[in-house]
Amino acid sequence: MAKENGPFNPEKYIDLIVFNIMIAVCFGESVELDDPDFMRFMKLRTEANEMIGKERALSKICSPSCIRYGQQISTELSVKR
């Protein structure tokens, strides 16, 4: 964060810090926030979240009827709110 000049989005840093804490709790050690393996993991996690959000990943593991059912439930839940 010290490298940033002016306003910036802290989301990346918050994610890195939270996952680093989880690693410390689960495995008893922490990693440097600029560790190449850690950065690769975070990049893959972000890409997976984007795929799932766009339903591309679901289309590869679920049948079309399963996806339609999930969309129907999601729609019904959002209407009830």
From TrEMBL:
Q: Classify the source by domain of life.
A: Eukaryota
InterPro entries per UniProt: Cyt_P450 (IPR001128), Cyt_P450_sf (IPR036396)
Q: Give the protein name, as stated in the record.
A: Uncharacterized protein
Similarity field: Belongs to the cytochrome P450 family.
Q: Which organism is it from?
A: Mytilus galloprovincialis (Mediterranean mussel)
Where in this chain does the entry annotate a coiled-coil region? none
| Classification of source organism | Eukaryota, Metazoa, Spiralia, Lophotrochozoa, Mollusca
Gene3D superfamilies noted in UniProt: Cytochrome P450
Q: Which GO terms describe its molecular function?
A: heme binding; iron ion binding; monooxygenase activity; oxidoreductase activity, acting on paired donors, with incorporation or reduction of molecular oxygen
